[in-house]
Design brief:
CATH class: Mainly Beta
Number of domains: 1
Radius of gyration: 19 Å
Distance between the termini: 30 Å
Helix content: under 10%
Order of helices and strands: HEEEEEEEEEEEEEEEEEEEEEEEEE
Number of helices: 1
CATH superfamily: YVTN repeat-like/Quinoprotein amine dehydrogenase
CATH architecture: 7 Propeller
Amino acid sequence: MTRSAAIALILLAFSAPGALAAEVLMHDEKSNPESIAVAPDGSVFTGSLSSPFIYKANKGAAPSALFVDGTAEGPGTTYLGQFVDAASNTLWACQVTPVAGSTPTKRHSFARAFDIATGKEKMRWSFPGEDSICNDFAMGPDKALYMTDTAAGRVYRLAPGAQSAELFAEARQLQGADGIAFLGNTLYVNNIFFSKLYRIPVDAAGKAGAPVDIWMDAPVNGPDGMRGAGDRLLLVEGKTGRILSLTIVGDTAHVTPIKDGLKTPTGVWAAGDTLWISERATGKAISIPLPK
């Protein structure tokens, strides 16, 4: 093989979908990144399933730095879903804290908002109920923030400028609600317990109806983080280490794997032509070119 041919093959490998573009160690190998969000300036945020911290990696920085310290929030506090609202320069984060002395363990959750530049808290909203797990967020076309409660089987809606959210949807099918995302005006929620994907219909008055089962044309095991990207959903399959692209026509989803071999991925975020992935087992945020 000539030298020029070898160089061409190398360049082709790094331009192919799934090729590794960059990786950032989020504090250390045991930081257990849970969910991921990327700001317009390239800053990468992850929560932590093993500690009361949120980490931020400025563009080009490795490893990351501590962004939020939740030590004072109580023993066992962790941070799950992370979501950047670029319009308001805000990072939204799901905070989950075990209720002291509860058997079996119950948890209390907050949706917390932080200034992206300073880390200063802007607001927090307490989830209702004796047991709640704030899991993730999505921004609707109405500019409201929608959030899942895995334990209670609910979706809440925080209207623009509001200080308190309202119950938007509650159903048996949402017990285990995890990832949440919009495609256009349509809201989708996945279920990590039952490996399901649902569409949440909304009537003319803005009221949510019963979840509609989306038939996926290939098996999906343990769906986790999920984001909309153009005309498709990007979905984490944590149990098998895959990232999937879902193209939905009617109530059928065509499933296309776009990355495999990951070690317990938890979240995805499309930033321009780059796809960022949080990888719990390695403590890293990694990126690949976003497949077309």
